[in-house]
Design brief:
Blueprint lengths: L4 H4 L20 E3 L6 E5 L2 E4 L9 H5 L14 H9 L9 H15 L6 E5 L9 H4 L5 E6 L8 E3 L11 E7 L8 H11 E12 L16 H7 L3 E10 L1 H17 L3 H15 L6 H4 L11 E8 L6 H12 L1
Parallel strand pairs: 3-6, 4-5, 4-7, 5-6, 7-8
Antiparallel strand pairs: 1-2, 2-3, 8-10, 9-10
Helix pairs in contact: 3-9, 7-11, 8-9
Length: 324
Amino acid sequence: MGLQETIKENLICVSCKNSIERTTISDESIKCDSCKVNYPLINNISVIINEAESIFSFSDFINQKNLFFDISKKGNSISYLSKVILPSIGGNNLGKKNFKFLENSLLNNKSQNKPKVLVIGGSIVGDGMADFVNSENLEIVEGDVSFGPRTKIIFDAHSIPYKDQSFDCIIAQAVLEHVIDPMKCVREIHRVLKPNGIVYAETPFMQQVHGGPYDFTRYSHSGHRKLFQNFTEIKSGATAGSGAALAWSYQYFLLALFGYNKTMKLLIKFFARLTGFWIKYFDYLTQCNVRDNDGASGFYFIGTKSDKQLSDKELINYYFKAKK
């Protein structure tokens, strides 16, 4: 079967940064003619990482080791029941609306070809993203550091295996808190975006640790803007407000008190959903307004690639401007 054409286009070697010729792509591996690195191809999914710089290795994927999460794990009856009958403890109030806005923006600015979109962390469909990634108007490349039902290519966001100016849009939903060096990843996003290409990111602020050892960073509204200082903002704001943040805290408070073992943790999470899911709905009262930014659960940013950099003085004014 081999790699899809959308995956092959504009591939580079992440070790030497030279182009990977299509003739070197076989059913078993992708070989760089320049530095002779062989990138494994596992179940038609290419693994293009720089082992010298990444926290991951080829063996992790060859042995199909569980990394960020076990995508094949179905869970037990308690976790399944809580997900089926109860709303989640947190929330994303704007995801679907933002992705519709994003698709319309891409289609309004497109050339003759379909806009090409890279989804970082795309092993599963993110909140509100279903219509976007299944759109017939877009060419989607879904990559991750985990195998999953949507994974088409494995790569580390610190070294994106594509040429400069390869994509019209890049999505990083709930990703940048899980990378070692977010700034480096955003520089890579900037590099592979076409001129005036669009980035969409969602990153948590007031949330407890999720993802265990692969959870590193949180951002305030201003901190998130600093991260994307080389982009011109289209719009930004809270994905979920202080109500969702309080619901997260309620659950983790109960886990701290009673989560002695795996079974107790599952029971506590079920109880927290049962008794605390309603707290996040206070966000509809505040409408995640600017007064809520200082205590919001997380933020989104939509911006276009720019040659200019937001100065630190402008960043200070950005906080006060957002409050108006």
